[in-house]
Amino acid sequence: MISLHNVSKSFGVRKVLDDMSITIREGECVFVLGKSGVGKSVLLKLIVGLLVPDHGTVNVGGKKVDPEDRNGLSFIRRSCGLVFQFPALLDSVTVFENVSFGLRTRDLSLPEADIEQIVKDKIKLVGLSEKILDRYPGVLSFGAQKRVSIARTLAVEPNFLLFDEPTTGMDPIATTGLNQLIQKLTSELKVTTVVVSHDIKSALKIASRIILLDEGKVVFDGTPPEFRISKVKLAQEFQMGSQYDH
Amino acid sequence: MKNYLTRFKFKFRKHETIEQMYFLGVQSVPIIVVSLGFVGLMMILELAFHMRLVLNHDALVPSFSAVLMVRELGPVITCLLLTSRIGAGIAAEIGSMKLTEQLDALRILSIDPIDYLVIPRWIGSVFASITLTVVSIAVALWGGALLATQKLGTSPGEYFNTVFFFVKFPDVMRCLVKAAVFGTLIPVIAAYHGFNCRGGSAAVGEAATQAVVRTSLCIIVADFLLTYLFYAV
Amino acid sequence: MTTSFSFLATFGRMILFAWECLVLTIEGKTRWRQVVDQIYQVGFRSLGMTFTAGIFVGAIMALQIDVQLKDFGAEAFLGGLSTSTTLRNVGPVLIAFLLSGKVGAYTSAELGTMEVTEQLNAIRLLGANPVEYIILPRMWAVIISSFLLLIVGLMVTILGGVIFSEMIGINPLTYIQNIPRIVTGGSIALSVVKSVLFGVIIAVVSCYKGYYARGGSVGVGIAVQSCSVTNLMLIIFTNFIVSMAYSLFQDIFQTGYF
Question: According to CATH, what is the number of the domain A2-243?
Fold first, then answer.
């Protein structure tokens, strides 16, 4: 379970999160929506301890997220996998090296054969062929790189999977593919997923819960059907915007 | 031929030029002053070492120091510092303008990018290089004065009297010419790299770093050629 | 005033950063195979530039000193004086300038890009320390290759001086023979020490600026520019400090010309 209690965060004069309290339970597939630049990425970074809140506390799996507490932070990062907006693959090593990276740093006694098996499994899971393992990230398409970075995060078998704008900049076919992958992960692997996005269509399709942020506060928190009929102005604007895509 | 000649006709853009003179020149002053101050101190030390080693007699150290500053180190070190400060900036600025199609936008508005971008920066850069070279030589000599009174036992008066013993008017002129030449190299090479930037934002960074390295090398080569021209021919 | 304070603050942070890297090295965490790899990437490609710069710097100094000495009829001293001045001061500083432009800028740009594309964050989240995994090999590679390049460059300046003496009709042999008369062991030691220090400066400053780059590609650009300027200023400053130390050592211990 991930919970934020009265969390506030500002960057200079910009107040990005304002006294926010959210609880995310196991098995949920939560979409955190909001306009661009509203602070959704900040939320994810607070959860994994890459940023520290000005006020309030963040708890993951019962432990408080505290950068001072090395062991605690290690535990939290082991249970949360964060897939960045940019694939963030290390471009000087092969795909295989990238995906196995987390395995090597965490458990130094894991035999090479096991590592290889895990990497192959995860690559298959994200829908890529094993042939990709020897190639370098630079030659792959953006969509493929995204999938590799998901495989990398999955290799260490986290309990929570956090996505930062996964479908931004992808074509509709790739977007559908990614949505299906997220659905599979949540339902088959029982991984709790938190997706930060402004892609309302994907949210309405696969989320079990939608949280809408505006000006640092939560303005809506409920299921997709509730979202569709919500009276909240921003929720309606979001839906109208997506309707114009037809 | 006509195309080449039209290159020399340009519209003088007063506002941009003055802006560039400020950005490139005035804002570089602190860095130049501090750095060249240390260069001046170092010159005294080095010359004292060598003069005592070879001639056993260091009365001429201030004068030699001044001569080397004016003929060589003043323009060269000042302009190398200037290159790293403004060369990368110009290349990156023009490169990203090319990337975001602003250069095309200018052309469509019948504004020649060279008039608008390069000429003001050229004037600003030459202004910067000449004035900063003069300032830096002054600072270096002043710094040298501080050290000379300690190390060489000369009095400040003696120092300032002898310092220009070897420096003649042609030397000063040649120094300014060197500064002007180096000051031209910086924006021209940087703008060239910016205009020829192809690719994404990585290419812009690449252009900026290449501009600085190539300009620095060109300054050293040009320095040799000019020095040879002035003093050995 | 605030600028000089912030410069001191940055300087302090850089020292802490360097300290962290030193501690990691002592703990044996350096990945030397990566270092060798990086030396090839970074150092080898700067060889041409170093060579060119060396020849011209050597020639320039020989030319300038020749002009001075001609007036005194002391051209016999050209070899020794020109080499000595170049090795002790002008050579290390100018070549270090060029290296900071090429090697320093390349390193800070690469690291800066890795930081703003979240690669370093990804490494943190997977449980590794990006300083150990990415920064440390590059830092050592830059120190070692800068040092080697500086030494090569300095040797080439001697060559440049010799070529120049040939050009203006001075017997190259006379030139070379004069060198040991004036270039002292202490001078050579001085230039080696400076080469080491300049290598360290370029490495620490570029890695620091790249690591702390923030804010997209604009941030990378700022990091690279800041890296260049900081490098140059620190090189000039250190050059002075080392020369000063040498001079004080000479005075205090009355060692004569060593």
Answer: 3.40.50.300
